[in-house]
What does this fold into?
Amino acid sequence: MSVSPSVSVPHSPRSARWQALTQVEACDRRVAARLDISPVSAAILRARGHDSPEAIEAFFSPHPGLLRDAADLPDIERAIDRLWKAIQDRESILIFGDYDVDGITSTALMVRSLQKLGAQVSYRLPERDESYGLTVAAVDEAATRKIALIVTTDCGITAIDAARRARELGIDLIITDHHEPESELPEAVAIVNPKRADSKYEFTGLSGCGVVYKLMTELLKRYQPTALSSFSERYLDLVALSTIADCVPLHDENRYLVARGLHQLYGTRKKGLRALIESANIRDKGFYVGGDVSFRLAPRLNAAGRLDSPTLALRLLLSNDEAECAELAAQIEALNGQRRTDTDAALLEAHELVEREANLADDRLLIAAGSGWRRGVVGLLAAKLVDKYHRPAFALNIENGHAHGSGRSCADFDLHALLEESRELIVSGGGHAGACGLTVETKRLPEFKEHALEYAADKLSMAELVPRHTADCEAPGRDVTLQLAQEMVQLEPCGSGNHSPVLLLRNARLQTAWPLKADHSKGRMMVDGQSIEWIWWRSADRLPEFERGSTVDCLFVPEVNEYRGQTSLQLTLKDMRVAGD
It folds into this structure.
């Protein structure tokens, strides 16, 4: 289990294994001396494939040269030509998105940019209690509105029936998506997806919003080159939001897109984003990091669709009216609070179901099916079950003869492959290796559960499910410095594929420890002759395990602490144990 410094690590059971992916080697000290960086930073980057001074310097300075040529995306020419014709002929265009952050931001980017070009454009997002993606019903609805062109964002790659219906009704369809295609592609004017088997685009990690950004960049390059520069800067804040929230890899061109996008986000002129940032109460550091999106902004945007309608969040991102933005942000903030309450209640019930029904000694996969759970929180439930029980998990809500829900994975278990092997047992399903959504008839739920458990038993051993707390590097005490803490920020933007580093420190001497309010704790420890302050969130119940003067190991993040004009090193602990345990 890889741990992120932005979230608390589930407290380690005694059986949990601690390991470090690397340690500081002689080559790291040579590179560190040449570049004037910490040897720990050099070791972390070496382990991530940046194994030369030149590669490390390039990593620290993402640049536009990382951007790939959008012309290599499949069907990009057909897409921009048809879209430009619709703009010029004042045809009615419908942007059909998805209800998560990626779908909302990609729809916002497409609508905003088309409006700037004078298009006749409207939008539609599905609700979470509707079927995923573009449906026949949605196409029929578009026909009643005299829509001439539908453009999907972050969906559509599996919409075979809906595409056929659009063709029957004489509605042209452009699909932009980044999800895995199936063997049969929908009938459409263009299908822009870097994951197509025939794609010449050599990077498949774009978010849905990233694909839309590339499409509009190519359209402007062809038809409105004078607007290209301002467009490139104006919308990267939305691309950054989507890329981090959708957990696509933060390397290759995504590193530049997100680094520049976070810079744009900090000074964004979009009134809706400003209102959202204010309601999220993000600490002003002079910049934003990946965690500000992952844990502050993205949950709020998702809360709109989970508990009410994703259109609330989309309206926020589209509005130019400050009063409307303030009102929408307040509604979304209230929904986010309700989302936390609902999730806590449903999670308690899900834990009870697992403890009662699962064979935790042998089951490699968990399925918790309850009723009264909001569809918008089942993905969160599945993720929390994975965190607690260290195995892939599904959380399903049963209503009206069907179980709708989400799956989350770990230990490299491929949920998408499981769904492909289960097509005869489920009504629908799709997603990625690590996360998926599905619908099962309630009467077939026992069959699906039996099949899923057998499939998981064949693919996973119990040894693979032993909880592991993996640090990025074992840090020698002499290298735990303020400089190291300052360099952690330079590793941003962090997220999937470039997570925020967690370090392992061995044999520190615990000097002091005391509880704080809200179940937190704080103290000092002696590390290679220097006394360093530490803080540990949600840990007061753990303090009786440790005695003053004892030797401890800890998983930690080095951070810069600024207080009353003074700057010092502080360790944010993720876990601690008596040395030798």
About this structure: Residues 1-15+469-581 form a domain with the OB fold (Dihydrolipoamide Acetyltransferase, E2P) fold (CATH 2.40.50.140).
